[in-house]
Amino acid sequence: MKHVTIRALARELNLSVSTISKALRDSYEISAETKQRVLALAATLNYTPNPYASSLRGKKSRTIGVVVPEVADSFFSLAINGIESVMKAMGYHVLICLTHEQFDNEKLILKEFQSGRVDGVLLSVSRETLSGEHIRDLAAQDVPVVFFDRVLDEVQAARIVTNDFESGYAATAHLVENGCREIVYLGISESLSISNRRMEGYRQALADHRLPFRTGNVVACTNDAAENYKTVKKMLQRKAPRPDGIVASVEKLTTTVYQACNDLRLRIPSDVKVVCFSNLEIATILHPSLTTITQPAFEMGRAAASLLLKAIKGNNVMSAEMVIPSVLIPRGSSTR
Length: 336
Fold this sequence. Notes:
Blueprint: H1 6-13, H2 17-24, H3 32-44, H4 51-57, E1 63-68, H5 74-87, E2 93-98, H6 103-113, E3 120-123, H7 133-140, E4 145-148, E5 158-161, H8 164-177, E6 183-187, H9 193-208, E7 218-220, H10 225-236, E8 245-248, H11 253-263, E9 273-277, E10 291-294, H12 297-312, E11 321-323, E12 327-329
Parallel strand pairs: 1-2, 1-3, 3-4, 4-5, 5-11, 6-7, 6-8, 8-9, 9-10
Antiparallel strand pairs: 10-12
Helix pairs in contact: 1-2, 2-7, 5-12, 6-7, 8-9, 10-11
């Protein structure tokens, strides 16, 4: 006989997995009528809980999972340092998992965590993530999830973010104030919350400075460095209107922009000025030095870890949100 799962009960009753799980645990959050419906169907279908998973969830692993798109980006490296500084002091191990910007990888990782391997999860979603069902499924197994940096708005969970809209605005306004009139925004996803909010700030800054917004100046990049190079190079070869400013929304695009400008013999900042969202330590020694929107990565990691600890202890932090501001640091790549 096929094993009946919580997900099967949820489909049959048109309820969420979380609701089914809470009803089976006799949670006060679920109405008596709903509990009766769930228990009746569970009895009819001979539903039995997974004792192995249940026993694991009843114990504490003293491990938390950190799920990030990559670690090559200095933001995530610094954030992980912040996370570990809190968790190790409290006797927790930190398990780092990379999605490589792929939604399928993210789903598999979170599904594995349902077994009780971790007590909680810190998550920064991939550029492909559009649906949050896998996150809700994990939370339904009493594994708390806290977003940091990259969030999924459709999922109600605690989050630690930075002021992406204001930062996108500041980067663009800085370029305008230094003489740019044709500013390009380089994004990495049309759905990723941080990319969209930074772009909204970019658009608002253009409007406030009475500059036109052109759809052709929003350039979609990917996770492929070679393709990004071709895209940015083609953009910089435009005759009219020729770009004279670039806002790069993620750190990985720094090398792409500098390489393309060098190969086209475009001088930074004389021919094109550049601002990048980046925490690169070598920003000061690049030629020219790189103007950055520097995110409080270490502080965000510490704050996210502290919030997750509260959730693991049973505190209701689902609606908690903390915004830690980023800082514009002008350097040689954008000044007159």
